[in-house]
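Progress narrative, Year 2. Work on PE domain-containing protein from Mycobacterium mungi advanced from sequence curation to structure prediction during this period.
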Amino acid sequence: MSFVIAVPETIAAAATDLADLGSTIAGANAAAAANTTSLLAAGADEISAAIAALFGAHGRAYQAASAEAAAFHGRFVQALTTGGAPMRPPRPPP
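Result:
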């Protein structure tokens, strides 16, 4: 039979590090959102407008995927935070 030994302090430190990483990525995504979702056409022709629209749609799709990843990340950090809490020893019966 295999046993898993987990050190609560290590799990808590990993959860904190992951939360910090998530904040950094969220900040970078927010800073890039305007520049990647609303592009101006390089010229006044239809091709330039179509290419700008295509890249804008790609940027919006990235932002949507990033939001889903951030939601998963938040749930994962919460699970680590909860799972890393020290276990209370069982109480003896009265």
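The helical segments are 8-37, 46-83. The two ends are 33 Å apart (CA to CA).
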